Amino acid sequence: MLTTTLIKNGIVIDTEPQPVVLGRADVRIEDGVIAEVGPDLPDVPGAEVIDATGKIVLPGFVDTHRHTWQAPVRAALPDTTIDVYIERVLREIAPAFRPADMYAGTLAGALECLDAGVTTLLDWSHAQFSPAHTDSSVQALRDSGIRSVFGYCYGGEPGGLTSEVRQVRERLFDTPGLVTMAMAALGPEIAGEERALEEWRLAAELGLPVTAHLGGHGREGAERGLAFLESNGLLDTPTTFVHALYYTDEEFKRIAGSGGSVSLAPVDEMNLGLGYPATGRARAAGIPTGLGADTVVCSSGDMFSQMRTVHLLERGRPDGAGLGFTTRDALRMATIEGAEVLGLADVIGSLRPGKQADLVLLRTDTLGMAAAHDPIGAAVLNAEVGCVDTVLVAGRAVKRDGQLLHHDLATVLASLRETAAAVVR
Are residue 55 and residue 70 in the same domain, yes or no? Predict the structure, then answer.
C-alpha cells in the first residue's frame, strides 16, 4: 500500500546543483521517496501531513567522517594534539572497548547525529578487534535508523585482514539496506605500503569504496603516499582522502582526475594541530569535498559547528584569498557535496524527485533564528541542535517536535555512561 507524506508550507531550501531558497513550498513523499516539490501541492487522501509553517525544510546533513564509537569518550581531551590523541584514545582506551561498549557508543553517536539533523554518516570504525565488535557496531547503526556507510577498519591479528573483510562483506552486507560498507584503510602513511596494497586491492575485488587518512601527516608523507597509490593503479577504486591538508594544487588536480574525493574535519584539524583545512584549494581543483565531525573527543558532534568553522577559516585566509567562499558553499559541503563524497549523490543530498526523503525541518521561532532574512545564511550561521524540529530518513520520521523517536533515551544514556566508566580510567 502506497504511503504518502505531505510537508506543507515550509521555507524550502534545495541544494542541487547549488543551494537555493525556493521560498514557501510543499514536499510530497511517496513510499520514502521525494515525489514532488512545489507551492500549494494538492492534498492527497489519507496522507500524513506535516505542517512546516515557519520552518526551514532542507536535505539532511551528510557527515563524511566520524569515529562514532568514541561517543563515550566525549571531551576526554578537549585541548590536545594528534600525538596525545593517538596514545591516549587509540592505544590506551580503545582496547578496553568490549563488543557491548561498541554497541553503546555507536548507537548513542548515531542518535546524536540524527538529533542534530545528520541523516547520513560515514562511520570510520577502527576499534574492530573481533567479529563480535563488528557485529555490535553494525547492529547499532541499523538499530539507530540512520543512513550510514560502515567504514570497516580491520584491527585483528596480522595476516587476517583479507579473510576477515571478506567475511564481514558476505555476512553482514549481503542485502541492500540503509547501512552499506566501505573499506576504512589505514593506508600507506599510517600502516605502510604492504598493507595499503592489500587494502586497496581487496576493496577493488569486493566492490567497496575506500576511505583513508591521506595527506594529513605532513608534506613528505602526502607526496610519497599519493605517488605510491598512483604508481600502483590503486586510485581506480573510488577513494576519499580524509584530512587532505598537505597536497599541492597540482596534486589536488591529479586527485580530481582520479575521481577521488576529500573529507575535511575543520574543528579537529585545527584543534589537533593537523593543519589548516585546504577547503578552497580542493574544491577549486574540482574535488567533491565534504565535512565530518571526526571525533567528539575534542570536537563538537553537530554539522552546524563544522559549517561555521569551515566558513570562518576559509573566509579568514590572509589577504582575502577566501572571501569568495560563502554560506551556500558551506551548506553544499554539508549536503549534496557530502553525498558526492560518499558516492550517494543519486540517492540523497538534495530535494530532486526520485531521491530518498532524508529531510530536516529547522525551527525559526527562536531568538537565535527569528527574523532571518537569508534562510541559508541562518541555517549555517545561526542554527543549532535545538532548532532541529523534525528529521526524516527515507521518509520515516526519526525526530518529531524536537524529540527523538523509536528509542528509550534514558536506557541509551545509561548504557553510554556505563561504557564511559568502564573504558576510561
Answer: no
Looking at the fold, whether 216 and 294 belong to one and the same domain comes out as: yes
Average model confidence (pLDDT) for the chain?
97
Structure confidence by residue, pLDDT tens digits, 55-73:
999 999 999 999 999 999 9
CA distance 160 to 177: 27
CATH number of the domain to which 257 belongs: 3.20.20.140
CATH number, domain at 396?
A: 2.30.40.10
Check: CB of residue 293 under 8 Å from CB of residue 303: yes
Residues 14-18, mean pLDDT to the nearest whole number = 97
- Shared domain check, 47 and 164: no
Residue ranges in 116-248 assigned as alpha helix (H): 131-144, 161-172, 187-190, 193-206, 219-231
Query: pLDDT for 367-419, tens place per residue?
Result: 999 999 999 999 999 999 999 999 999 999 999 999 999 999 999 999 999 99
Which DSSP string do the residues of 65-127 spell out, in sequence order?
Answer: EE-GGGGGGTTSSSS--HHHHIIIIIIIIGGG--HHHHHHHHHHHHHHHHHTTEEEEEEEEEE
How many domains does one find in the chain?
Answer: 2
Q: Is residue 347 included in any domain, yes or no? A: no
Does a structural domain hold residue 314?
yes
Residue 387's identity, in one-letter code, is C
Pairing of strands 239-242, 210-213: parallel
Q: Are residues 49 and 112 in the same domain?
A: no
Three-state DSSP class for 398?
A: strand
8 Å CB contact between 376 and 21:
yes
Contact 11, 21 (CB under 8 A): yes
**279-321: per-residue pLDDT in tens?**
999 999 999 999 999 999 999 999 999 999 999 999 999 989 9
